[in-house]
Specification:
Elements: H1 10-22, E1 27-31, H2 34-45, E2 51-55, H3 59-62, H4 67-72, E3 75-79, H5 88-94, E4 105-111, H6 124-136, E5 140-144, H7 148-155, H8 160-163, E6 168-172, E7 183-187, H9 189-201, H10 210-222, H11 227-242, E8 247-248, E9 258-263, H12 270-279, E10 285-286, E11 291-295, H13 302-316
Parallel strand pairs: 2-3, 2-4, 4-5, 5-6
Antiparallel strand pairs: 1-7, 6-7, 8-9, 9-11, 10-11
Helix pairs in contact: 1-10, 2-9, 5-6, 11-13
The structure holds pyridoxal-5'-phosphate.
Pyridoxal-5'-phosphate binds at residues 33-35, 38, 59, 111, 115, 144, 146, 172, 174, 183.
Length: 317
């Protein structure tokens, strides 16, 4: 192993090259987490006082501890997307014209797939049109692609279908792709050099990190095609959940590996359901006061989906 801050860890270099290739961009950078990937990318695109146009339920709004305000001094302009997905018209309306009173619309940020949207996938055309509108309005376009490969597998498209229209994109190795740690940011060479300095500023310069990068490299080499099976498992789970008394879900909305359902029972809250199932070895989380989120992944087989459904059936029926 080498020291990645000095750029001489061979595994990190290979991972960055392969990730850039996979996402069809000139350069890539390995970072510890998806949150740091978004924070560093948005910081590199913006100046204090700028505005970032995004969906109100996106990860950058909900789960990044206010980082974009605290660390980049930007305002998040929150639009209300359907299943977290913005429309071209919404973005067109939101981009601000040049005027001394208003902040500069510097970035349009899309999340694909969308976590709180239940793993929803941007139709390629919709993302392309939004990117064009963003660029025409002088903004950079960023994709929080923590689960971009899920979107690509779901639609049967190459990542380039999305990335060729945008300035930066992230990817998490540690989610559906199954690596223990790490994410990446891709973009052009000059942008990635700026992001590299910001990563160091945030404390994300890692030293003998090849051992972690190796897991991420394995993930992109071996675990992408398998996502189709993961999605089929999620759909099976959603279909089974829809048959349970007091569980509300439309299985047709499940496009990838995230399953969000409502618990509508007088005798059991969403939090209680999570607790009871946890006692039975099945782990998931509440999503708001009356809903739960389950995620299928590399370590869950089709048989285990059926076991989970059996267990839920016994508890709820
Ligand atoms: C869409 C999205 N972006 C970014 C992240 C952040 O990733 P991390 O947990 O590695 O910081 C997550 C985490 O769940 C996510 O769902």
């Amino acid at each position: 192993m080498g020291d990645d801050v000095f750029r001489d860890d061979p595994t990190v270099r290979l991972l960055e090259e392969r990730t850039a290739e996979l996402l069809a961009k000139p350069a890539g950078l390995f970072v510890p987490s998806g949150t740091m990937a978004n924070v560093a990318a948005i910081r590199a695109h913006t100046h204090h006082g700028d505005e970032v146009i995004c969906d109100e339920s996106s990860h950058i709004v909900q789960y990044e501890v206010g980082a974009h305000a605290a660390l980049s001094g930007v305002q998040l302009r929150q639009l209300s997307g359907e299943f977290g997905l913005l429309t071209a018209d919404q973005v067109r309306e939101a981009i601000r014209p040049e005027n001394i009173h208003v902040p500069v619309s510097r970035v349009v940020a899309l999340e694909n797939t969308h976590n709180r949207g239940g793993g929803s996938v941007y139709p390629v055309e919709q993302a392309r049109e939004i990117a064009e509108i963003g660029h025409a309005g002088g903004a950079k376009v960023h994709i929080d692609g923590a689960r971009l490969m899920n979107a690509c597998v779901a639609l049967g498209v190459e990542p380039e279908a999305y990335t060729r229209h945008v300035d930066s994109c992230t990817l998490c190795f540690s989610k559906a792709l199954g690596a223990p740690v790490g994410s990446a940011i891709v973009g052009d060479v000059e942008f990635i050099e700026r992001v590299r300095r910001i990563r160091k500023m945030l404390g994300g310069g890692m030293r003998q990190v090849g051992i972690i990068a190796a897991g991420a490299l394995y993930a992109i080499e071996h675990n992408i095609d398998w996502l189709a099976e993961d999605h089929a498992n999620a759909r099976r789970l959603a279909t089974g959940l829809a048959d349970l008394p007091g569980i509300e879900i439309d299985p047709d909305t499940v496009q990838t590996n995230i399953v969000i359902f409502r618990v509508n029972r007088p005798d059991l809250s969403a939090a209680e359901l999570v607790e009871r199932m946890s006692e039975r070895g099945i782990a998931f989380i509440t999503f708001g006061s009356d809903s739960c989120r389950m995620v299928t992944h590399l370590d869950v087989s089709r048989d285990e989906i059926d076991q989970a459904l059996d267990c839920l059936h016994r508890l709820l029926d």
